[in-house]
């Protein structure tokens, strides 16, 4: 190669023949290296040369007397000579270890090695330092988190106290309301009958400017704790989780109270079904003194009657009565729901699949959480609803849900479990599940869930829903909370009607399902409504409640990583129709600020939207 | 669907068993899934369950020999799910006992820290479970045979 004249201008023997010169670094790299060596990198070529004990010939660069030009590299090896090819065999790869003591030159690499080592040591130290900093940061964060949890726990305690107070107060109102029912009945009977009564009733206690000591106390307690929950935005998720414990009754209150001012005579029919589901669902949603409320809402069944009024909802009967049992032509509209049944037990899976296919759903099964996640990952919008066992091998249902939520935030996921203790159920909701189907499940239980969460796919409601179709999709699908709260906030308008009907239908069915004790039912709902209501609690000032709390809630909710989409979807949808009713709320709020801050906060927030 | 339960003494004994063992409302739900009066869904389902139970019993015995409470609890839970779904209430109850004591808890959810007590209760429950299963299987067989 060195003798090849065509390379002469690039690389050749030096004049003495005891070294070779690379004249043009770049050309050498591009044209010669690839042909003769495995690599085409000049630096590694030089490294290799060094390993074979070639050394670069140093020229006195200061004097500028490099014989081959500034860019030339001259290499020399004692045995490498143009005239001594027989010596080539003596050119061997250095064996570094044995040479070290003999060659003085090796002392230099050794010190270099030390330098390198100390450099890498320094680097490692840096790394360790960085890690320590990170660790410290994490420890700090953790501390903050723990503090937050503690303060949230305090708040939860305070809130359940508040809930107690509110419920007591509401019970009083409720009593009064019932006492006055008959008189109201006659005065307002011109407005299409029963549907209107509850709302009219509602006006009564609210209009009566009574001091509400319980409510005031409740507000004081809340004001005392609320700043803590806002302290750290990063903890939204945690706080969201913790809010769940406290807020339901508050929202119950607001929903119930809302009925009262919100019943404008022009829209009695619409309005009532809207409030109705909330009234029925939420009040039962707490651990505290719920029972009286529950019985109340049983007694108030007339509330839901508007649903069976053919003028409003033709689908209501089909939802509230259990026709499913007898004949099943087809429950669904143009598209059959596709259900994923995640269940490790073969028998249960077969029965579940059979029940589902029997009501005209197409069913796929997964034997554990991992399979389910795989299926969803593979095609995230393949299924319309998931029934998810909790205790399964490989991956449990709650973890699977959390994972599925990352790719499919909206699909309703129903926990199937025999653990229907409230703590368990709260956990399920926290991780993004939408509802619970108690085990052993029944066909009717499954149908109820399907109708509730896939109401937008039902054959019947669609002709009525019309404009509300979209709303149904978003409000109906995500779970029990959103549709109800949507219904509660929703104003007069087709969307509101449809949502209310859906929610109402679901509600009625709850009454009929024997497996679910009312208490359990209620608790299922509590977490999901939380995102909408908890912000109100946070806002301490009355003004901020009026303006800021609602949007604040919207900000907060996405923080609850599991369920952001609901808030995002439901809130805007609801906001628009609500506008029509703004004057009511505002007017009342002006009259009774202390109540309004507590009770209308969420609704106000929606208006602002 | 009407079945005569008292064709002879043995049958009526079996059917009494059936009534004790099976929650009719739940079981009928399964039967309703059958088409054309054939038990082409329910019958294989139930007999699969018996196979599954047999298999689970084997595992339970092994776990019991190892004093492996965790596994016992899991197995109890597992069999409880399917038996409950089929309406086999006696089986379900025994499974519940196994699941609970496997967790170191009484059936009422109170803590039972004494492992020996737990194992004793589980042993007892497994024994009951097995005899119950024999009775149930017999009753179910009669039930399906009668239906044919």
From TrEMBL, chain A:
Coiled-coil features, chain-numbered ranges: 114-148
This protein's UniProt keywords: Coiled coil, DNA-binding, Nucleus, Phosphoprotein, Transcription, Transcription regulation, Two-component regulatory system
Natural source organism: Lasiosphaeris hirsuta
Residue numbers of 4-aspartylphosphate PTMs: 389
InterPro entries named among the record's database cross-references: CheY-like_superfamily, HSF_DNA-bd, Sig_transdc_resp-reg_receiver, Sig_transdc_resp-reg_Skn7, WH-like_DNA-bd_sf, WH_DNA-bd_sf
This protein's name: Transcription factor
Start and end residues of each Response regulatory domain: 338-454
TM region positions: none
Chief location: nucleus
Subcellular location: Nucleus
Region entry Disordered, spans: 84-106, 171-211, 464-492, 517-539, 562-609
TrEMBL record, chain B:
HPt domain sequence ranges: 38-143
PROSITE patterns cross-referenced by the UniProt entry: HPT
Record PTM Phosphohistidine, positions in chain: 77
SMART domains cross-referenced by the UniProt entry: HPT
Database matches in Gene3D superfamilies: HPT domain
Gene Ontology MF, one: histidine phosphotransfer kinase activity
Annotated GO biological process: phosphorelay signal transduction system
GO cellular component: cytoplasm; nucleus
Superkingdom of this protein's organism: Eukaryota
Signal peptide residues on this chain, from the entry's feature table: none
The name this protein goes by in its record: Histidine phosphotransferase HPT1p
Keyword Zinc-finger carried by entry: no
Keywords recorded for this protein, A-Z: Phosphoprotein
């Amino acid at each position: 190669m060195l003798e090849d004249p065509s390379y002469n201008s690039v690389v050749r023997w030096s004049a003495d023949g005891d070294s070779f010169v690379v004249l043009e670094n770049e050309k050498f790299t591009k044209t010669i290296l690839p042909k003769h060596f495995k690599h085409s990198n000049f630096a590694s070529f030089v490294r290799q040369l060094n390993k074979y004990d070639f050394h670069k010939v140093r020229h006195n660069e200061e004097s500028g007397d490099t014989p081959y030009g500034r860019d030339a590299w001259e290499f020399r090896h004692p045995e490498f000579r143009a005239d001594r090819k027989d010596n080539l065999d003596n050119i061997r790869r250095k064996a570094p270890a044995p040479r070290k003591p003999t060659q003085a030159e090796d002392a230099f690499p050794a010190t270099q090695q030390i330098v390198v080592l100390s450099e890498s040591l320094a680097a490692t130290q840096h790394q360790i330092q960085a890690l320590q900093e990170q660790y410290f940061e994490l420890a700090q964060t953790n501390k903050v988190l723990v503090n937050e949890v503690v303060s949230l726990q305090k708040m939860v305690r305070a809130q359940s106290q508040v809930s107690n107070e509110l419920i007591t107060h509401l019970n009083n109102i409720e009593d009064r309301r019932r006492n006055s029912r008959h008189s109201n009945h006659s005065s307002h009977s011109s407005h299409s009958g029963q549907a209107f009564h509850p709302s009219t009733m509602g006006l009564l206690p609210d209009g009566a400017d009574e001091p509400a000591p319980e409510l005031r106390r409740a507000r004081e307690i809340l004001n005392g704790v609320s700043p803590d929950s806002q302290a750290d935005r990063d903890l939204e998720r945690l706080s969201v989780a913790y809010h769940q414990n406290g807020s339901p009754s508050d929202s119950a209150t607001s929903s119930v109270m809302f009925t009262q001012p919100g019943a404008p005579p022009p829209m009695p029919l619409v309005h009532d079904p809207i409030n109705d589901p909330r009234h029925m669902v939420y009040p039962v949603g707490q651990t505290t003194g719920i029972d009286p409320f529950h019985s109340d809402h049983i007694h108030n069944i007339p509330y839901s009657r508007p649903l069976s009024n053919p003028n409003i909802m033709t689908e209501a009967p089909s939802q509230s009565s259990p026709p499913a049992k007898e004949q099943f032509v087809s429950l669904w509209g143009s598209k059959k729901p596709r259900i994923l049944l995640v269940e490790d037990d073969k028998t249960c899976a077969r029965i579940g699949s059979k029940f589902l296919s029997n009501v005209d759903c197409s069913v796929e099964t997964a034997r554990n959480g991992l399979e389910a996640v795989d299926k969803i990952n593979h095609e995230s919008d393949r299924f319309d609803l998931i029934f998810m066992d909790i205790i399964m091998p490989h991956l449990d249902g709650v973890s699977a849900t959390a994972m599925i939520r990352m790719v499919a935030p909206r699909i309703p996921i129903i926990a199937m479990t025999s653990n229907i203790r409230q703590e368990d159920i709260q956990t399920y909701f926290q991780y993004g599940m939408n509802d619970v189907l108690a085990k052993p499940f029944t066909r009717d239980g499954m149908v109820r869930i399907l109708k509730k969460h896939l109401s937008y796919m039902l054959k019947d409601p669609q002709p009525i829903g019309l404009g509300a179709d979209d709303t149904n999709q978003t409000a109906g699908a995500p779970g029990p909370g959103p549709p109800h709260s949507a219904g509660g906030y929703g104003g007069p308008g087709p969307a509101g009607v449809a949502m209310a009907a859906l929610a109402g239908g679901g509600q009625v069915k709850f009454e009929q399902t024997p497996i679910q004790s009312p208490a359990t039912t209620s608790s299922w709902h509590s977490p999901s409504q939380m995102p909408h209501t908890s912000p109100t609690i946070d806002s301490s000032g009355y003004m901020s409640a009026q303006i800021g709390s609602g949007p604040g809630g919207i900000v907060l909710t996405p923080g609850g990583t599991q369920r952001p989409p609901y808030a995002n979807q439901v809130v805007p949808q609801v906001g628009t129709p609500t506008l029509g009713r703004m004057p009511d709320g505002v007017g009342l709020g002006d009259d009774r600020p202390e109540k309004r801050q507590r009770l209308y906060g969420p609704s106000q927030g929606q208006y602002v939207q | 669907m009407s079945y005569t339960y008292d064709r002879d003494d043995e049958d009526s004994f079996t059917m009494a068993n059936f009534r004790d063992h099976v929650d009719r409302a739940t079981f009928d739900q399964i039967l309703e899934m059958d088409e054309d009066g054939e038990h082409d869904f329910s019958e294989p389902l139930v007999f699969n369950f018996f196979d599954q139970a047999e298999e689970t019993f084997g595992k339970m015995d092994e776990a019991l020999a190892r004093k492996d409470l965790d596994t016992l609890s899991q197995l109890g839970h597992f069999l409880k799910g399917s038996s409950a779904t089929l309406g086999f209430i006696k089986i379900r109850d025994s499974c519940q006992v196994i699941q609970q004591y496997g967790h170191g808890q009484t059936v009422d959810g109170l803590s039972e820290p004494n492992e020996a007590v737990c194992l004793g209760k589980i042993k007892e429950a497994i024994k009951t479970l097995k005899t119950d299963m024999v009775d149930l299987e017999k009753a179910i067989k009669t039930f399906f045979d009668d239906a044919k």
